């Protein structure tokens, strides 16, 4: 059993080291969304203002192509911002995939060593020691956390349309609501759980 426990501990140490780097990358990726969404919101406000303007009865009416040129310029700027947001979304997708692969790798090690470890050892808890079952459940919580965050960011981007400036204006608020749902320190809690398990074997 000691050999199996050692293999399991090594797999968890490797997972924790990678998870800490991924968590830092996640925070950096999320921080990069807000300025882009604020810029899109500002563009949406300009689009709405241009729509409300009575072009025909204003001095600008003498410039027949101006309205179309302005719309194309604003739309081009919006599409450039959307492309940058798409790149940020891909960063979250890559993190989701890496987290999923890492959790699957640890679970695969457990499946290989489960018989040797035994159910009693898997479920054994101490005063400061979570059980291995608790730790493995935590890894799956982290994987689910990243998967849901990516999905919500993807759905937010799919909802954006230059033909709906009202919705675009509300993007910073929509993003803030998403972040509020992911404020809990799921990853840090699980990293602590892994650390306690390893330190109190």
Low-confidence stretches: none
Global outline = elongated
Mean pLDDT across all amino acids: 87
- Major sheet description: none
The H-and-E topology, N to C, reads as HHHHHHHH
Distance between the termini: 12 Å
Q: Quaternary state, please? A: single chain
* Number of beta strands: 0
Residues in helix, %: over 70%
User: What is the rounded Rg?
Assistant: 24 Å
> Percent of residues in beta strands?
under 5%
Helical element count? 8
* Class based on secondary structure composition and strand pairing: mainly alpha
Could you explain the architecture of this structure?
- This protein is an all-alpha fold and 201 residues long.
- The chain contains eight helices and no strands.
- Helix 1 runs antiparallel to helix 8.
- The two termini are 12 Å apart.
- The mean pLDDT is 87.
Layout of secondary structure:
Elements: H1 2-31, H2 33-52, H3 66-117, H4 119-123, H5 132-158, H6 165-169, H7 171-181, H8 186-199
Helix pairs in contact: 1-3, 1-8, 2-3, 3-5, 5-7, 5-8
Describe this protein with a few key phrases.
single chain; 201 residues; 8 helices
